[in-house]
Design goal:
The protein is elongated, with a radius of gyration of 22 Å. It is of the alpha+beta class. The strands form 4 sheets. A 9-stranded mixed β-sheet has the order 3-4-2-11-12-13-10-14-17. It has a 3-stranded antiparallel β-sheet with strand order 6-7-8. It starts with a helix and ends with a helix. It is built from 12 helices and 17 strands.
Length: about 375
């Protein structure tokens, strides 16, 4: 996601660009994002506006502008799945305390809704239910929209970086040699191997694992957070699939703590949690699955999550190397801003037409599939738990 946003930004600023993808775009971290463009509430549940909240609070309006008008990155062909999320709390004092953060003075301010305005999914929830102006975008569709105008300059192949900054691209029995002024590494967890190949310093990246859960069946469209204490107990986003079914993609604390559970235990825990936080939903005709993924981030003291997108600048001879970690999908446009600023003004070199001509006949990279299409094992509710 960050690489495609950066590619679009660089091209629009007059740079010649070329993207090299080994397998499928977004394969790994990007297509596993839940697609929520946070506005900061999630990072202020303790009652204080954190640095993370301030870094991300303008993102909802920025993404919606891209979807509505095509400004910056053109997402008009990938409109949001929803223009808001729902926020509700677990029972108890801890959950009530967490709602303090939802009332802070952020740009994306949650608003309480009357019981009659709640979605059916939340009809039996006790306590306040809030509507948050945080849109949800489908990662796969977003990747496709960003790739479409850049397809002439995108190839599927292996990139080998020589330590003078030269890049050799191999694919379809061909080899292409590039001598870029700026080399952008935006491969998520793959950044470590790329930096090693370049002979650059290691130890700058950290991985934070997740064990996500999914449930599919005759479910309604729904996107929301259930908070408990200072944490998001579960986060749910949804997507339509074949046969009139819908998948609910489940993250939050459930996914973070789920790394200590195997797939069977995680399915069982997810069923129990979903029944607890959404008591009115009937999961009896559904099936459950899980998958694991790593979030790649710029290393932080004590392994904490970075507050903003991060770009590390290095050099290989006369080539500037920018290693990109967007931290969150919502911050991918900010990472692109950082890349554009570091790359500087476009200067004389091969034109975009020359690059496109050199890439004629090369295989173009596909966009990766959503995780629920790649997962094989779906277990019926009756076999998951009572």
């Amino acid at each position: 996601m960050a690489g495609l946003f950066a590619m679009n930004a660089l091209w629009n600023a007059g740079h010649s660009v070329c993207l090299v993808e080994r397998s499928a775009l977004g394969d790994g971290q990007s297509v596993c994002a839940q697609g929520i463009v946070h506005g900061g509430v999630k990072y202020s549940l303790g009652g204080l506006v954190s640095g993370s909240a301030r870094a991300i609070e303008r993102m909802p309006e920025r993404w919606l502008a891209m979807a509505d008008t095509g400004s910056e990155g053109d997402l008009r062909t990938a409109p949001p799945l929803a223009r808001h999320m729902w926020l509700w709390r677990s029972e108890g004092v801890a959950g009530a305390f967490a709602m303090v953060g939802a009332k802070l003075s952020l740009r994306a301010r949650p608003e309480a809704v009357a019981p009659g305005e709640r979605p059916v999914v939340l009809r039996d929830v006790r306590g306040d239910v809030l509507r948050m102006p945080e849109p949800v975008f489908a990662p796969v569709a977003t990747l496709g929209a960003l790739l479409a105008p850049m397809m002439r300059w995108a190839v599927r192949g292996e990139a080998r970086v020589v330590r003078d900054g030269t890049v050799r691209v191999m694919g379809d029995g061909r080899t292409l040699t590039l001598r870029p002024r700026c080399l952008v590494l935006a491969a998520g967890a793959g950044n470590a191997a790329l930096r090693g190949e370049c002979g650059l310093a290691q130890g700058l990246m950290q991985l934070r694992p997740l064990h996500q859960a999914m449930v599919r069946g005759p479910l309604p469209e729904f996107h929301g957070h259930c908070v408990d204490g200072l944490a998001t107990r579960v986060t749910v986003t949804s997507a339509a699939v074949a046969g009139g079914e819908r998948v609910w993609h489940i993250g939050g604390k459930l996914a973070e703590e789920g790394v200590s559970r195997d797939a069977r235990a995680q399915r069982s825990h997810a069923l129990a949690e979903m029944r607890a936080v959404l008591p009115s939903v009937d999961f009896s005709s559904c099936k459950w699955s899980t998958y694991s993924v790593n979030r790649a981030e710029r290393e932080q003291p004590k392994g904490g999550r970075p507050e903003d997108a991060c770009v590390e600048r290095s050099a290989l001879g006369e080539t500037s190397v920018l290693t990109v970690w967007p931290t969150k999908m919502a911050l991918a446009p900010v990472a692109a801003d950082m890349v554009l600023e570091s790359a500087g003004r476009a200067c004389h070199g091969p034109s975009s037409a020359d690059v496109a001509s050199a890439l004629e006949g090369w295989e173009r990279p596909p966009v990766a599939r959503a995780p629920w299409h790649a997962t094989c094992e779906w277990v019926p509710t009756g076999e998951v738990g009572p």
